[in-house]
Design brief:
The protein has about 140 residues and is an alpha+beta fold. The chain is about 35% helix and about 10% strand. The protein has a two-stranded antiparallel sheet. A two-stranded antiparallel sheet has the order 2-3. α1 packs across α4. The radius of gyration is 16 Å and the shape is elongated. It starts with a strand and ends in a 23-residue tail after the last strand.
Length: about 140
Amino acid sequence: MTTALTAFQFRVLEALLEQTDRPAASTPPWHTGRTLAQSLWPYSPAWTRRTRGRNNRNGALGGTMPMKGAKAAWDLVDLGFASATEDENYQPRFTISAAGRDALTHKSTAGSPVTPATPAQTEPTQRYGAAHHSQEG
């Protein structure tokens, strides 16, 4: 199966690679949805917007930017170009996979066909706490 990655998907892969390989001394070697969004859209006016608050309290600053960053990363996880693990609070942590590194290495132009890793080559990834919210018992 061949998938054509978009220029934006290559940008996300580059942000994941930079964070994984060359983290700053004060940053971890992975991205959360928020940190990925800050890396991709640092000057977006959406960072100054608030979500709708409740009970006379303000909503979250930054609106839905963390969700947009996580969505971009989950799309690459689904294609096999990134991987996700969860911390103790079920917060996903995104890193670039071997297939993602290979895609960046063989990238000639944005949107060029790239073959993702087969499911047997990638680690199984469960979405955001799905294993912890099953209906057993």
